[in-house]
């Protein structure tokens, strides 16, 4: 009887009165519609008045579209929207997977050093791509930057999990402290790399380090997009395993879940998604902690629904943050990492206060 109950919880069913699968499916459908609307809105947001409706008429009815509008929409805004969708979904899903893996809602790639580790590999490639890393660049081509960011992100994630986990139990305090230490080490290494960069690289590196979609191009999407897509395709297959892992590793093992393989796949999935995202946009924080937490309040903790919903809501939030960054100081542009930090830092403090019982909201 107990085994059947545990299997039911792992499959996300739970007691009948607590089943939120119908609501979860409805929320996912609603988020898909909102994502389309947000993408259309993002086409028109910015210092230029290029019209999304003009583009629709150009596609459907072959009407005339000015060279200026075609350039703005096709070569600037559309790549930016595609990049925002990829990165937003990657960061949100990575946060949900990490929280399921560590069994704690405070885990986030940006807070525990994974993003900083990816930044080290990306910056090293930018600075040394023509010298020390030239042989690797000759072999990997346009994939050099995302692959190097993935490798350093992977090393950081394995280090974090190895330090925080003992005898199958993950210490939250150790995880956060180890994450702070790894993030500080990453900041120190990126600072050293920035120090030795030349003047031509310096401004781009500083702007990139704060996170931005301004450099979106079809070439960058072609380089990092496949890595993110593979991670997003793999993530839903982790859903049942993460549900079982929430009951503890021993219970998950009795359910027939290959725990060690699940952990390895989850770590590689997070490292690939975060590494490729950082390679494209730089450091964008707090998406991975805001999105899964909001969704758990609405649709519950079942990862079978939480992971696809996180991908959709993460895309929506990043597109909205990008629209704010483009318009709030127009015609200049605010780095998107600043926008997400301004929204995410108070949210993170609210989660901490709520967990300690200081606030009931």
Automatic annotation (TrEMBL):
One GO biological process term: siderophore-iron import into cell
Stretch forming the signal peptide: none
Keywords assigned by UniProt, alphabetized: Cell membrane, Membrane, Transmembrane, Transmembrane helix, Transport
GO molecular function terms listed in the Swiss-Prot or TrEMBL record: transmembrane transporter activity
Family, per entry: Belongs to the binding-protein-dependent transport system permease family. FecCD subfamily.
Mode of membrane association: Multi-pass membrane protein
Entry keyword Electron transport: no
Keyword Ligase attached: no
CDD domains the UniProt entry points to: TM_ABC_iron-siderophores_like (cd06550)
UniProt protein name: Iron ABC transporter
Highest rank taxon of the organism: Bacteria
Subcellular location: Cell membrane
Main localisation: membrane
GO CC list: plasma membrane
InterPro entries the UniProt entry points to: ABC_BtuC-like, ABC_transptr_permease_BtuC
Membrane-crossing residue ranges in chain numbering: 27-60, 81-102, 114-133, 140-164, 176-197, 218-238, 265-294, 306-328, 334-353
